[in-house]
Design brief:
By secondary structure, the protein is α/β, with parallel strands linked by helices. The chain contains 3 helices and 3 strands; from the N terminus they run βαβαβα.
Length: 102
Amino acid sequence: EKLLGEVVGVMVVKKPGVKDVTLEELREFSQTGCRRLQPKWNPVLLVWADALPKGPTGKLLRLGLARRLNIQPSEGLAVLDLRGQTLALQEQHATEQVVDGE
């Protein structure tokens, strides 16, 4: 989005034995699947990860995720492979909360 610099992204954790999905396949499914999304919610970013990032309480960390992953806004479609980096993100967030709590 040009005004706020925000875009819709999808973080995917692949199950063993399941083929990788492409961003184009996700975009097509979002328009033709069982619940059709409005075009503004069509993802333009696909991020592969080993696990979804969670905080110390086990709650999913979705707000500010792009900032914590250092994902910069880009023009057009993008695919990032962060597999192998998710655990470092979780440890970093736990450290951030301890520092913020002091």
